[in-house]
Amino acid sequence: xxxxxxxxxxxxxxxxxxxxxxxxxxxxxxxxxxxxxxxxxxxxxxxxxxxxxxxxxxxxxxxxxxxxxxxxxxxxxxxxxxxxxxxxxxxxxxxxxxxx
Length: 100
What we know:
By secondary structure, this protein is of the alpha/beta class. The chain has four helices and four strands. The chain has helices at residues 8-16, 32-41, 66-81, 88-97, and strands at 4-6, 21-24, 28-30, 44-47. It has a two-stranded parallel sheet. 10% of the residues are buried.
């Protein structure tokens, strides 16, 4: 089973969302800086009983989907150039898939 790490950045993300308590299961390792940041931000880290996995928490590192990246890049290019350059969609797709 892969371990997840809860870092100071994660604690900041949760605290900024108003979270006051995070339940930590066997599948989560809290970094030293994460523990320190939790104390600083008033976030309680509650260890769950052995064998219990952590409930899902939104991650501050959630990566956008390819579709979201595609839309953001497309929008930025169109805004910069004032129109849609020829072949824009194909170029973005090539970059996202790593094909030349």
